[in-house]
Every structure is written in structure tokens, then in C-alpha cells.
Protein 1
Amino acid sequence: MAGCYGCRSFYATRGEDWSDSFSYTLTVSAGYATQPGSKFRRTRSIMRTDLISSSPSLRIALVGLGTIGKRLVDIVSHIPEFSVSGVAVRSISPALSPMVESGIPIYSSTNDCIFPAEIPCAGKLSDLLEKSDFVLDCTSRGNGAKLQQWYERANIRVIYQGGESSSLASVNYCSGIGFKEAISAPSVRVMSCNSTGLIRIAQALSRLGTVETIRAVLTRSATDPDKYMKGQPNAIISTFGESHHGQDIRVIWPNLNIITLASYAPVNCGHLVTLFAKLSEPISLDVAICTLEKIPRVRVIDGSGSLLELRRINKSSKRRDCSDVVIWRKGIHVIGNEVLLSAGIHMESIVIPETLDVLFAMSGLEKKIDQARHRTDLAIYNYL
């Protein structure tokens, strides 16, 4: 077991405070305690009073209510220091019903959004921004860039999602990288789902020694479950040349030698990653598995390797979400200094933790990455 902790932490090499990442325990109201990335165990229920603020809540605007937006509304509305000031949408969808029932104001982010009588329009996007302290932009690819001028005009800080260009925001964030910069940044972009999964795996591998190269092949879901009509039902489509994921990762981890390829498959339950990593020194299979099992937001499971297993892990989640990157134990192989593995990524929820990490940082509520991540993981366990 000593080999699991013998390697120098990736965060330590970047100067991040990660000293108690694997020893700190949170106890939630349901009577369970967890460390990030670990299984829950039964324990005595203790309330953490330091999580409760007596100051007025920070007003969070959600722009876009798709796959990411509706999950963030669920969580943010339950965090004591935050309140959802409103949701701005460009079209009306059934996803708005819970918002209306809970009294969250609905705004129009475009001039041509027609509201039915049962959904009152609270105003335009500019009206929402005036009543907010932070924006979570959860719009589809490219729309965040179109709305950037509105955010800058309102002088409001914003968190973008990974569909936007890495150059759009002041800081790019993923899995702890960029956390300190995010505290004071006017805008932060959270990396995409596949890039997030790859970085978590790369960080885990870096605990085994110096990672010389990573080569990964991504088999991507054609679409999200709620957009299945936009998929390619009878085709596997290749993207030629290097995919954007490796390029994205090198923006925030420039000395990591990683190259990625990608294709689209006619599935909508998750992405599949096939990864080959070369380390500086040989390791054993036991040490590799042990290390991967100890990393926050990485989950090693026994299974057949089916992407459907991603939806069976958290049966208590109302959407069957799994925000961890999932690695199949039988798929981990070690040949000398090379590690081969297969991983699954639930594209609908894997970036939720990173988005909340950044929100805690930008709001000033948490200034250390380990504390922000613990708070995030607790909120996800309770409300996602």
C-alpha cells in the first residue's frame, strides 16, 4: 500500500494546497460520510456549522437550462450562501416547469422567445444581470461567446462551459488546475467533459511517476439523451486528425505530452476513453490500481465495460448521474512502464463538480482547493 502514496502529488508540483485531500471527512445530514472519490460509509450525523453563512446570499444567474443548467439549478438553489436570481432561456421547454413551480424567475435571453401564459416572463437578460452577482453560462457551444458582450457590459463575473473556446475566458479550470487564478478572475471556462475526464486520469497517473506520454482514443456519444433526434443513429463518424481535447489540456498543462483522437458513436449514455500512458519508470499492476482507487472523482469499478453501467452506479441520484470518471478494473493493464486502461465518462454530469469548485472560488467562499472540493462533493451527494 505504501506505493500508493509514495509518489509526489501533481498538486504539490504546482504549489496547490492538497495536504489533507485524502484524510478529511465530511458528514452529511443523511448520516453518511465520504471522502471525494470514495464509497460512503455509515457514521454518526454531525452538522458542519462552518458551511452555513449568516450573510445575505450571493445571487446566481443561470443562462441556459439544458443538460448542465438544470443540474446546476438543483444544486445551487440548495447551497445556503447562494440563491438563484433567475434563469434566462432562448426557448421554452418542459425543463422550465420545476423552475416555475419553485418560484424561480424566468427571463428571455433572446428577443424572439415567446412565453406562454402559464410561464410569466420576468424580463430580458439585461434585467437578470442587474439583479445578479455571478453568471453560470450553460448555453450550447458558441452561444456564450455571443453573450459575452452582455456580461462585460453588466460588469458581472461569469463561468463558461467547455463548449466555448479556451481563449474566451480569463482562466481555464479543471480538477484543481487554475483554482487560485479563478478566485480573482473576471471569467473562467470549465473544461469539456472528455477533457475533464482525461485530466483526472492524467493526475492519477502522475502519482505513479513522471508521465512521459499519453495517447487516448475517444468514442463519443453522438448526443445527450434529451437531444437524441440530433444524433446519427446508424453511423460511427470519425473526426480527422487530433481532436481538440489534447489541445485543450495542453493549454492548462503545457508540459503534458498528450494527443487525442475522437469519433462519434450512435449512443447517448456516455463517452468511452481508451488510454495508453507511458511513465518514466516501471510499476506494478497492484500499485496502479491502488493509486487510481485513491484519487478524488475517479472511481474504479468491477464491470463488463459497458457504458450503461455509468447509469447504474448512483441509483439514489434522481437522474442516475455519475460525476466521477469511471475506470473498469479489468481494463487496467500494465506492461513495464506503460499503463493501458478503459474509462467511461457520463457527459451530462462530469463537469458539475468543476463548475461548483469555480463558483466557490470566485465567490470567495473557499480559497483552498481541498475545502472547495469537499463542499462541492457534499452538495452533489445531497442534491444531484
Note: Residues 180 and 197 are 21 Å apart (CA to CA).
Protein 2
Amino acid sequence: MTELGRLRGITVHPFGARIPVEPGERLLDAILRAGRYVPFGCNHGGCGTCVATVVSGDVEQDPATLTTLDARSREEGRVLLCSSQLRSSDAEVDVGDTGIVESEFAGAGSVDTTTTVTDVLRPAAGLFLLRLRPPESWAPRPGQFVQLALPGGDAWRSYSVASRAESSTVDLVIRRVEGGVFNTALDGLRPGDDVRVRGPFGAFTVRTSHRAKLFVGGGAGIGPLRPMILQTLERGDDAPVHLVHTGRDESDLAFREEFIALAEKFDHFTYDPLVTVGVTPGVRGADLAADAVDQHHSARTLRRSEAYLCGPDAFVDRLADHLITNGLRDRYLAADRFTASSGSTLGVAPPQDRKSS
């Protein structure tokens, strides 16, 4: 306690919110624990996404991460929240440079709690589908993400929610990485095990509009797109909905049978599953996806559409450039980018969330 009887903490501008900070706690963790949200990426000081400016007080950043910011940024008082701790009793930081708006910072409905594993499935050769019991009063919107910490550990990873808000489980699609520390721990999870979760976070959500919708996913990028598509189709709007999903081979195409059935049920839904094995050497999944888009969409139809992209950075960059060059208005483009690091970041105009593999 300080002399004024208050817990030590930080005030986050431009929102004026005061966040309690525990001894030794990273500032980003304190913000998330309080149910608030700021954009972040790698979660270990490598990407520079969670930058903030120290307005007052003593905030110390881990020396190992100082080189992520250039000398001028450090001189201007900028720090990375994911690798900084509070050294004084109080401090003020400004996160305005991240572009976050108040509704996102508010983190409406987010929690930090423990829940139970109900199942661990393999929807495709390279994926886990981890099913959790929804915490009380917890309703992630399609496209949002949550953070997960496994028993006995304090490392967090961020994963997209692949289930609908009204589902009886919270489904997380996780790409399998042989030898990965987190994946090894996931292999040991069984129904009934407890895990710690926090969230939901992010603004990568489908709009309620009558515009045609294009969804493009690379590999595990199908995770957040699945509930967004289900929500769109079940709303009853007959505007065209097109899904392009790429994988190395058919075993990578999670939920393939489900999407085939949806295409048979809904006349306005088109599903293009694409594989890169056996195609011309050097042709990437993003190239195949771009070709599939061109076959279905002219510049005129793209101008009347909105697009949702999810996959690795290079995949999303290639598709985003292609769509905008060919007629899509950038205000109607939203992207969810996977990184090899642990964490997620929310960008603006368009939203860009980063997830762990």
C-alpha cells in the first residue's frame, strides 16, 4: 500500500483508467488481468506492438528487449508493456500510439479465470481442437481470441475461438508444432483438466451488413472464420458468401465436410478448398487463393464486398494487396495474422489480430 492507502498502479491514457499492479507483474499482464485490452503481439518484447509512452513515474523495461525500440523512441520515454515493470508506487502511460479506441480498451466481457477441458480433438492432421467449458457470463464473439495458460506454467498463448457464442463449449483451433513446448503440454491434456484462460479480446469480428462476404483462410486460419461464416449464414441474409481455404494437402483442410454440407444447404455459399501439394513448384497457397478469388469476383463485385483474411503474415499480406489492387475498398478489409510468437495484437483500419501457432 502507498502512503495514501492505495495499491500501486498505473493510469492508462488517453482513457484515464487506473490499473492496480502487483509486485513484479508486467504492465501488460496487469492491464489484461483487469479486464482491459491493449494491442500486443509477441508477448516477450520482440515485435514492438505494445508500445506505450511513460508520462510520469518510474517504469523499467527488461534490458534484453531494449533494442526492439530505437534510440529516439527510448529517449522519448517509450517502453514495451509486455516486458516492463512498475518501479515507483504509481505511473502514467499513454497507449494512444497503438491506435486503440475506448471500446476496445474496455475489453467488454473479458475475464481471467480457470476453466475445464471437455475434449481434445484432431480436426485435421496438423491441428488440435481444444474444447473448454465456457466460464460463467463469457460469450466470445465469432472471430475473437482468448489467451491460454497450461497447468503449472505462467506462459500465455493466444488462440482464435472457433465456436459460436451460444455453443456449449469454447473451441480453440491450435496448429500442431512438433517439439513445441506448448504443443507438448497440449498432448498431455485430458478431459477434466483445468486450464487458465483470459479474454475474450480482439475486434476481428464479422460485420452485420448486406454486403457480399469473402473469407480467405490459410491452414489454421480457418479457426476464427468458421464461426463468422456460420453466424453469417444463419442470419438469413442471401448476399453471396465465399470461402477460400488453402492447405498443404486435404488432411490440412479442417471442417472440410462441414463446409461441403453448408454449400449444399445454402445456394449463396461457395466453398473452395485448395491444396498446394502437386501444384507447380513455387506456387504458394496465397497465389492459389488469389486465383480462386479472381475466378469468382470482378472489380465491380469486389467493390461491393467485404473481406476477412486469416493466416500467416505473408499469406495475409499477399491477399490483402491483391484484393485492394483489384477493387476491394480497404475500409472493408479485416485481417487476422498468425505469428510464430506467443501473443496477439489488434491493429486498426483494418483490424489485425496476431495469434500463436
Note: The chain has three domains: 9-104, 109-201, 212-338.
Protein 3
Amino acid sequence: MIVGLVGNGGVLFAVSKNKRLRSARNIFLLNLILTDILLCVTAIPVTPWYALTKNWLFGALMCRLMPLSNSCSVFVTSWSLTAIALDKFVHIIDPTRAPVRVRQAALITLFIWLVCSLINIPYLMSYDLVDGAYYVPENATPFCGHFCDELNWQGETPRQLYGSTVMLLQFVVPLAIITYCYSRILEKVAKDMIIQNAQFSESLSTAQRVEATQRKKRVNYILIGMVVAFIGCWLPLTAVNL
């Protein structure tokens, strides 16, 4: 938690002090930093404590707000990564097009937070704080402590439908967009005129051609790695929350 707060806080401080860092793409990156900080101050300290003690000590309000903040953070992270992929896609595929301005990026970020918050309202309303007697039959010995749990769904079917919708909007759609954008960027890189133009390529030395080829490979590895990392980080969490 401390490492996350210090690291992300340092980046926020650097951007606030250096106007040259206030670009549209960095606005999306700052959005990722804000979600990391939100998780650092909510999920990281609270979740392990609750898992170890089996007793919710943070009140009914936090019982609803913490799952909401965690879910919103995941949503916002997914769509911020999608926005970054779209920004790169437009910039590389059509470099003559006007880039996204800082004001536009800020409005997109605000829109992402608004939509993600609205999508997670059912998640907010489903949680409630109960004592241990809720889980045992009447006149039986109750469990000790208080518990924050999903209790307000009207049956299992609505919960499953909502979970499937969340998986679609939080994981499947962003993954499809990110994969499409980066695959098109890979195609663009593969058609790099420095390599494809034989006449110009012949004017390069062997070392320069090798360096250009290695540079293309690094770009390929980075883009493929970003897609794989997205799947590896969010698929398990999304599947568990179904």
C-alpha cells in the first residue's frame, strides 16, 4: 500500500509541477493512477483485515461504498486502457488527424467515471451489513461479529444476469477494442516504409537494418504483452465476480 501511494503520488506531483507532461494521453494515465490510489486506500487495507478477522468493523456505509469503489476502479481501469489504445490507434493509423486535446481527454475521463458509476449502482445496492444471526436458523447459536455481504438480489438469476453484463462491459468489449487497435498498429508497423521500400533499405547499413528490425520486434512484443497482461490481470477477477 505504501509503495503504491508513494509511487502514484510521485507521478501526480510530477505532472502537477510540469506543464509539458499535461498531454491528453497522460490524462488517461493519470486516470489509471487515481484508480490505483483508490484501491490502495480502500481494498488493500480493508480486504485482508476482513478476511483474517471475519468481522466487518467499518460500518454499513463503508460496506456499500467499498465494493462500489473497487468495482468502479476496475471498470475505469479497463476503459482508460481502452482509451489509450484508441488514442494510439488514431495517432499511428492516421497521423494527419488532429490529436485528442487535453480538454477532450478530461471530458472522456469524466464520461468514463460517470458511466462506470451508473453501471455499478446495482452492485452498490446489493451489499448490506448483517450480524452473525442472519446465517443460522432461528434459536441456533449465531456466528460472532458482523458481515458485509451481497444479500439484496431478488434471486440468483438477476445476480447472474448482472454478472454476465458486467463481464461483457468490463472485460469482453474493452478487450475486443484493445485487441483490434493493437493488431492494426502491428499491421502498420509491419508495413514500415523504411523496411518495405527496397531502394531506401539498400541505402542503410547492415547494422541499421538490424536495428530497425529489432525496433519493430520490440514494438510487437510490447503491444502483444499489453493484451496478454490485460487478459491475465482482469479475466480471473471478472470470472470470480460472475
Note: The two ends are 27 Å apart (CA to CA).
